[in-house]
């Protein structure tokens, strides 16, 4: 589903170039739930931006499905992203003057007219994320956990091949975070949704099938709960 090969990325800092990604290789299968962890500045959020087509690498290839992201022009990447990639952010990124249903429907309106099948999809997602009865409530009146549920439904409304989540539980307490993570797992298991989640939280990462450990712009190790040294290695890595 996702193939990243020898990807590098640098950013300018004054007169100097800072290399954030240093030859990243990563393959993610269809329907897999992968968490990306690492210290601040290790490159994990930059990788997520590249996967979503928000930027392109300096070198290397990024393939989603059969599409080469780095080969696309900016307009092509925008259309591809809108139709094939869902985003969930730490700060929700909702339109505060719109209600729940309007926020979820927004990506569809950006691509055309709302059809009956789209409304059915919206209704199903509202039910799936536990917001039935709140369809007409403005999102600025919702709790943080409820806003993140709206954000997740919006990210999934176009039935994307890939869901990208950047610290989706960072603004939530442990109980609300667990609810959001459980929702992600349900979409992963029931709909075979491919998910890539960046997180600094070991608890959140534990919901994923595999954890990609990032350090100094490279993949340090890919680990899963089945590995004998899973807990010990993860604790030492994040220490």
TrEMBL record:
Annotated GO CC locations: membrane protein complex; plasma membrane
Record-annotated ABC transporter domain positions: 2-235
Pfam families, alphabetized: ABC_tran (PF00005)
A GO molecular function held by the record: ATP hydrolysis activity
Signal sequence interval, chain numbering: none
Domain of life: Bacteria
UniProt xrefs under InterPro entries: AAA+_ATPase, ABC_transporter-like_ATP-bd, ABC_transporter-like_CS, ABC_transpr_LolD-like, MacB-like_ATP-bd, P-loop_NTPase
Family that this chain belongs to: Belongs to the ABC transporter superfamily.
Name assigned to this protein: ABC transporter
Source organism of this protein record: Halalkalibacter hemicellulosilyticusJCM 9152
